[in-house]
Amino acid sequence: MKYAFINGHILDGSEHMEVISHKVILTNNDKIESITDESTSRAGYQEVDLQGAFIMPGLINMHVHLPGSGKPKRKQKDSAKAAEMATRNKLFRHMSMKMCENYARTELMSGVTTIRTVGGLLDYDTQIRDKINRGELVGPRILTSNQAITVEGGHMAGSVARVVGNEKEARQAVDNLVEQHVDFIKLMITGGVMDATEKGGAGALKMPPEIIKAACDEAHRNNLIVAAHVESSEGVRVALENGVDSIEHGAMCDEEIIDLFKKRHAFLTTTISPALPFALFDRKISHCNEIQQYNGKLVFDGIIDNAKKALANNIPVALGTDTACPYVTHYDMWRELIYFVKYCGVSPRYALYSATLGNAKLLNVGKITGSITAGKYADMIVTKINPLDDLSTLSNVTHVIMRGKLYKPDYIKKYAEVERQLDPFCKL
């Protein structure tokens, strides 16, 4: 496993990256050994001729739920009943675990070399993470919270989130997750678009401040950060006031919220992908009702407003897809980069940086991955076209290198309806 990647153009993942040509990337086992001149001896290395293609760090998806495909359905399913069925007995647990393992592999084969999972079934995600780390499965680097923590009637209660009723139960839930060796804690603080029963009800505060604080305090006592599902301005304020470290999704943002972000040294994870279909599709296509469409637009506008104001105030912004929501698949991270450019006004270069080294830094793995740098893990992808000219080229990677292992991506079966409806929104 000593490779020399030759005849390629390098995008190193740095914030101000420019195309680097006439260089060779040497990898040795799982690490990048050096980026050197073409004249350097390559004896002992297997040459990989990129034939003028572009090589860059693998993408990092900051918001993934493994137990779901993202394939849209005409009728909303009961997620708690589906989760109960998937974990009911040994056979069903085996089948649902295999499903999650396959989706993790799909993430990798689509060019995503690191994922942060923010709510899953039981302790599946840590099990999958550890199997990948031991070399028993092919998949991306995983940082996970396993099941999230919610309250009765809260977002995803009983499915990818466990229910707590008071501060003591919140602390115990955190301790149980610590025993599972999670990488961080996830809270479901507000409701979401599908939870709301009236216009303007999306993002209603569900988790009381004292429970948020108890969970955050216990997580911080165990040196774990806390991410939180939040889709209202009130929810963002309450989350930050009580110790949350990353706001997932976001909402309309004012000066008080900006100050709280700065005081907490918190970051925002922007997820435009799940809100867009609810907000912008015709209801005959999205299969949502008028209330859901109204609330979807409210959340869509709030996410974009939060991202724009965070960027303007030097608050770190991460990129994630909220994969497994309707129309958000495990192979479409590239769309989130395009939405970031289209709706938040950043450059393609900044979007690519955000999805690589920027996300790596916010995950505290920037010293080991996220850029093409000597000494870091060889986590890289290859495209035929320069993504700075056309980000959609990231939808068709030709090579994936994960911890120094070279893969020709698997064939990924794509959902024709998803492609047909989303492609018009992915033109810049």
From TrEMBL:
Identification of the protein by name: Imidazolonepropionase
InterPro entries cross-referenced by the UniProt entry: Amidohydro-rel, Metal-dep_hydrolase_composite, Metal_Hydrolase, Metallo-dep_Hydrolase, OTAase-like
Pfam families: Amidohydro_1
Species of provenance: Sharpea azabuensis
Single GO MF descriptor: hydrolase activity, acting on carbon-nitrogen (but not peptide) bonds
Domain Amidohydrolase-related residues, every copy: 54-406
Top-level taxonomic group: Bacteria
